[in-house]
Amino acid sequence: MTEPKPRDLAALLLTLTVVTGVVDAVSFLGLGRVFVANMTGNVVFLGFAAAGESTLSVLASLTAVLAFLAGALAGGRLARREDDYDALRQATAVQAALIAVAVGLSATLGNGTRLGSELLIVVLGVAMGLQNAAVRRIGAPDLTTTVLTMTLTGFAADSKAAGGAGSHPVRKVAAVGAMLVGAFAGGLLQLHVAMWTALALALALVLGVLAVLQVGRGRNKPATGSDSA
């Protein structure tokens, strides 16, 4: 598969960054103060919960970490069998299916029971692990779609004010903005409408990314028969 143009790829990864913001807003605000994409937060939460912080759940954080690892494992195996962008396309297809399941679960079981919340954490954690593994294979600078710590570090440390070249400042700012927009939209829907609507937004964004990847794959298929002569 021919690689997408840099701008096209950046747009896709920024869209997935918005998805991360939406999904983490749902998990933190609706599933018991846990992240399904930001594993740094969960590790810290595990420490806090183990120390006796009663508003945090060791079970929820541990479930999220294990589910994320399972998704990353599956995504890693997929990435090693395929072209980088085919791997992203296939991982995004599975991620879309998982988020669709989460929409259904949230609309039926909801998060009113511990079982419902744990199921949603597992499904969403696997989905975000897949996304991260596929994006990691591509290795686009400052567009990890999940972790902003290094992006912000690079924005400051690589800036001309710090004596650096100031490379890709717009991309770094866009990544932070995408996460913020996703968190705002997800938080708004989670707090004032319903969980399933926030997850439906995440699903729509992932399906949009998948559609672009699928169209690009179709256009870049090698010619056959007389066309390839």
From TrEMBL:
Transmembrane feature ranges: 56-79, 91-109, 195-213
Coiled-coil ranges per UniProt: none
UniProt superkingdom: Bacteria
Keywords for the protein's UniProt record, in alphabetical order: Membrane, Transmembrane, Transmembrane helix
Listed InterPro entries: DUF1275
PANTHER family xrefs: SLR0142 PROTEIN (PTHR37314), UPF0700 TRANSMEMBRANE PROTEIN YOAK (PTHR37314:SF4)
Protein name: DUF1275 domain-containing protein
Lineage: Bacteria, Bacillati, Actinomycetota, Actinomycetes, Pseudonocardiales
